[in-house]
Write a structure and sequence with these properties.
By secondary structure, this protein is mainly beta. Helices cover 4% and strands 64% of the residues. It has a six-stranded antiparallel beta barrel.
Length: 101
């Protein structure tokens, strides 16, 4: 079951790597779709997944700096492409991630 499963949010460091920023558990997760495309001279597989988390103040940093954060879930890294704190009510945050495997 994916609901309640742990995820890590990582932040890019100056050395080109990633450091753990926040560890939490999912309220909900929904795979939207996957697709294949030609990218960088070869075929790439992408998967879009929507992650719903309980609001935490630390998540606010992601809203205006998405390229410097990513989600790691089930051993796969997802670039964050969407952030939503619905009407800034601070109840839950929805993040959309895109993986490349």
């Amino acid at each position: 079951m994916s609901v309640g499963s742990p995820i890590a949010i990582q932040k890019a460091n100056d050395g080109g790597g990633w450091d753990d920023y926040l560890k939490c558990h999912l309220l909900d997760v929904n795979p939207e779709y996957s697709y294949e495309a030609l990218d960088d001279g070869g075929e790439q597989s992408y998967q879009r997944v929507v992650f719903v988390l309980r609001y935490r103040k630390a998540l606010e940093a992601i809203e205006y700096d998405m390229p410097n954060y990513r989600i790691v879930w089930r051993g796969h890294a997802f670039d964050i492409r969407y952030y939503d704190d619905f009407k800034y009510r601070h109840k839950k945050v929805t993040l959309r991630g895109v993986s490349r495997d």
